[in-house]
Amino acid sequence: MPRKPGTSAYELASSIPGLSGLEVGGGRLLDRANALAYKKESDRWRIRTVSLYGAFPQGTTLVNAGAPAEETLRKTIQAGELVGATVIALGGFFDTCPKMDSEASYGPCVELLKKMGPVAADSGMSIALELSLSLAEYQKLMGLVGHPAVRPYWDATGTDHMGHPGDGTKGLEVLGSSICQMHLKNGRKLIEERHLLEKHPRSLQPDRTMSIDWTKALPIVKASGFEGWFAFETPHASPEACVEETKKNVAFVMKYFS
User: Fold this and answer.
1) What is residue 5's predicted lDDT score, i.e. its pLDDT?
2) How far is it, in rounded angstroms, from Cα 211 to Cα 64?
3) Which residues contact 120 (CB under 8 A, 6 or more apart)?
4) In terms of C-beta density within 10 A (0-12 exposed, 13-18 middle, 19 or more buried), how is residue 59 classed?
5) Nearest 5°: CA angle at 182, between 178 and 186?
6) Which among 72, 75, 17 is positioned nearest to 249, based on CA atoms?
7) How many angstroms from the chain centroid is the CA of residue 58?
8) What letter would DSSP give residue 101?
9) What is the pTM of this model?
10) Which one, of 15, 227, 12, lies nearest residue 24 by Cα?
C-alpha cells in the first residue's frame, strides 16, 4: 500500500486476490469523520480494517508514557471499535523502546499497558507491541504486563535486522499463539527470496543479516497455533508493482497454509 494510503487503499487492496484486510495509521482515524470515511470505503470494497497502528502525541512514547499516551490510546481503541479493527498496534524502536534492564525505562510502559489491556479487551481488541527488543526481553515485558489482551506484534525480519539475529524465527516458535499479528517482509525482495539485508543503521551487529528463510519459518508458524493476521510490510515502486508483487507474496504464503 502507499505510505499514506488514505481511503483509496481499499480499492487497491480489493484488486489483489487473497488479500482481505488492511492495517491503517490510527492517527488519522481519531477524527470521527475520517473514521467513518474509512469505514464506508472498507464496506464498499469489502476489505476489512484489521488493525490500527497507533501514534502518540509528539514527544510521547512508550518510555515516557503517561496521561497523553493513555488518552490517545483510549481514543484509538474507540476508533478501532468504530471501524471494526481487532488489533491496536504500538511501535517502539531503539530510543522509543523500553529498556528492559531499567525499571525507570520500562515502568511507565508496563503501567500504561496494565491499565489499557482491560479497556482493549472490553472492546474486543488486543494491543500489539512491535518493539526492537530481543526475544527474552519481549518475554520479560509480556510477563510484567500479564494481561491476555496485550500481546506481541511479531516481525521476524525486523527482530533480526534490528540486532537480534536468530530471534526472529525462534520467536515464531516460542511465542506461538500469543502473537496476535505478524509482519511479513523481506527488504525489497519477494518474500520467497533469501538474501543479505542492508545493514540496519541502529543495529549493534557488525555485519549484514541474512533475511528470514520463509520456506522454513512459515511451517513453524503453521505449527505454532498462531491465528492472527499477516500484514505485508513491503516497499513497491508503484501501485501496479504493489498489486503484482503482493499477488506473488500471497500465493507463496498460502502454499504453506492450504
Assistant:
1) 52
2) 33
3) 77, 88, 126, 127, 149, 150
4) exposed
5) 145
6) 17
7) 20
8) T
9) 0.94
10) 12
CA-based nearest residue to 212, from 195, 228, 229: 195
Q: What is the residue whose three cell numbers read 533469501? A: 194
Distance CA 164, CA 151 (A): 19
**In this structure, what C-alpha cell is assigned to residue 218?**
512459515
First to last CA, the chain: 25
Q: Which three cell numbers stand for residue 165?
A: 539475529
Residue 202 clears pLDDT 80, i.e. is over it: yes
Q: Phi, psi (5° rounding) for residue 240?
A: -65, -40
Provide the pLDDT for residue 2.
Answer: 44
For the stretch 149-173, pLDDT in tens is 999 999 999 999 999 999 999 999 9
Instruction: Tell me how far apart the alpha carbons of residues 129 and 151 are, in angstroms, rounded to a whole number.
Output: 6
Is it the case that residue 136 has pLDDT exceeding 90? Answer: yes
Given a cut of 70, is residue 88 above it in pLDDT? yes
Residue whose entry in the numeric block shows the C-alpha cell 539475529? 165
Q: Dig out the grid coordinates for 95 from the structure.
A: 530510543
Rg (CA), the chain: 18
